[in-house]
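Hey, resending since the last one bounced:
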Amino acid sequence: MTSAEGFWYVLQCLWLGAGYLAKVPTKKALSDAGLVTMTSAESFWYVIENIWFGSGYFAKVPVKKALCDAGLSPMTSAENFWYVVQCLSFGAGYFAKLPSARALTDAGAYSMTSAGNFWYIVHCLPYGWAYFMKVPVKKALSELP
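The structure tokens again:
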């Protein structure tokens, strides 16, 4: 994680914990892949996020797809189903996967396609949305053993 990403992560966390809460589904996906162990606080917040209409689970699905594309973790049939449903909603699943794929590319675990790079840059244009979505993923990856 670069110092700039660390700075933005702290700012995201100062805003009612948004950075931390965005990191939790990524940690769950990494935990499902056997790459990291979630803390009890992260497990608690993941449950709370799922009580809120499954938002934690639905945020985890694009991260799992990026991990699957990188060959780090298989997706379950339920995750595949929900990823397709998200993609049917004007490509939301695909676009949500891009910040995770970029973080994995930055870590050297994956190589994004040219289409993925194009859409990542397009999503960075409106106020850096994709970059700011990548920051919690990079924080989660920085906690790998």
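The first helix runs from residue 3 to 14.

Sorry for the duplicate.
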